[in-house]
Amino acid sequence: LPWHTTGKLSTNRVTSSCSRRAMPELLQFKDASSMRKYSRLQRQAGKRIALVPTMGYLHAGHMSLVQAATDRADIVIASIYVNPTQFSRNEDFGVYPKAREEDHRKLLAAGCAAVFEPASLYHPGTVSSDGAGDNANVVGAGEHVVGAHETFIQVEQLQKGLCGVSRPHFFRGVATIVAKLFNIVEPDVAVFGKKDYQQWRVICRMVRDLDFDVEVVGVATGREEDGMAMSSRNALLTPDNRQRAVCISQALKWAEEQISHREATPSGIQHEVTDRISTGGGRVDYVSVTDAENLQELKHFVSGQEVLVAVAAFFGSVRLIDNVVSVKQAG
User: Fold this and answer.
1) Phi-psi category of 317—alpha, beta or left, where left has phi over 0 and alpha has psi -120 to 50?
2) Count of alpha carbons within 13 Å of 80, Cβ hemisphere only?
3) CA–CA distance from 267 to each of 71, 288, 290 (Å)?
4) CA-to-CA distance for 49 and 88, rounded, in angstroms?
5) Which residues touch 70 (CB under 8 Å, ≥6 apart)?
6) What is the band of 10 on the pLDDT scale with cuts at 50, 70, 90?
7) Which is catalytic among the residues 4, 59, 62, 144?
8) In order of start, what are the domains of the chain with their CATH numbers?
9) Catalytic site includes residue 62
10) In which band, very low, low, confident or very high, does the pLDDT at 15 lie, cut at 50, 70 and 90?
11) What is the pLDDT of residues 38-48, one digit of tens each?
12) CA contacts within 13 A on the Cβ side of 283
């Protein structure tokens, strides 16, 4: 790594024990200023920079994002930040799983050069919020604090359907935090997983509309051996609900086959996928069959069209999402 810590930058280091001769280190940045200085110095040295935004509790799916980033850049920076503005007060912000030291080891082993792990990315304001920290930025947690953060980005149309119906606050928070990360890290490329398909589309549209000079890469959903989509929230499932939740990927695989090779209608697929997940023990939030690019609900299929089938469902109190994209073949 062509970098040495000086007194001008606030960093910590995680060292790999895999080689005593060449000791790779993961630089850790806690504040926006030192993160930006590091990134700019790498750019001045002619390095191409990739950003992998995460909320931590990393799994193999996240590591596939890091791998995709290392294929496209010289320096890979991961961010770990549980963003409060994409949660409402009745959601799981307070119990989102964390494993900081293990996350750092995984990032180092996967080839990350640095991790950006701020305590908060929102200005707290001029009036005390009783030490609430980022909890005060959870949507609906309380009244706005005088002088606190109040600027948000909304992607007006793409945020409306799918997850935006039951979580209308979500994509405002996502777009805002990603824009802030882009402004701090100043990456050439940013890598996101397509499990959060609507999020990926929202970010692509924000980048286009606001002229960010960032290449946005989407990576296919990582899956467990039984087909279930990898997710940090899987750790919150009880063993029984973990077994039940595989019905989501099974229903989506059925839908993919129907669209690809057989006569089917969007409404028929929607109803059948809903039934299969409900019968499997889930409480369905939504099943949507949409155009894969503009996310508009479909009333019929057109040959050659890319179709998204997206699902959100609860198993116990844990909300899971998954999707497939399939191309409608000629009937």
Assistant:
1) alpha
2) 25
3) 40, 9, 11
4) 33
5) 50, 76, 110, 111
6) low
7) 62
8) 11-219 (3.40.50.620), 232-327 (3.30.1300.10)
9) yes
10) low
11) 999 999 999 99
12) 6
Q: What's the pLDDT band for 263 if we cut at 50, 70, 90?
A: confident
pLDDT in tens, 60-70: 999 999 999 99
Give the DSSP letter string of 228-241: PBP-GGGGGS-HHH
pLDDT of residue 129: 47
* 15, containing H or E segment: strand 11-15
pLDDT greater than 50 at residue 190: yes
CA–chain centroid gap for 183, Å, is: 18
Q: Mean pLDDT, to the nearest integer, of 234-259?
A: 97
pTM (two decimals) = 0.89
pLDDT of residue 127: 57
β-sheet bridge partners, residue 153:
none
Q: Structure tokens of 327?
A: 């191309």
Closest CA to 284 of 253, 257, 259, 248: 248
Torsions phi, psi of 207, nearest 5?
Answer: -60, -45
- For residues 329 and 261, the answer to whether their CB atoms sit within 8 Å is yes
Instruction: Give phi and psi for 289, each to the nearest 5.
Output: -120, 110
d(Cα 220, Cα 60) in Å, to the nearest integer?
12
Point out the least confidently predicted range of 17-26, 193-202, 242-251. Answer: 17-26
Strand ranges for 137-202 from DSSP E = 189-193
331 pLDDT band (50/70/90 cuts)?
low
Helix (H, G, I), strand (E, B) or coil at 131: coil
Cα three-residue angle 233-139-30, rounded to 5 degrees: 70
Determine the length of the chain.
Answer: 331
Q: Which residues, including other chains, have CB under 8 Å from residue 252's CB and lie 6 or more apart?
A: 273, 309, 311, 322, 323, 324
Buried b / exposed e over 243-258, threshold 16 CB at 10 Å, is ebbebbbbbbebbbeb
Tokens 């989501």 locate to: 248
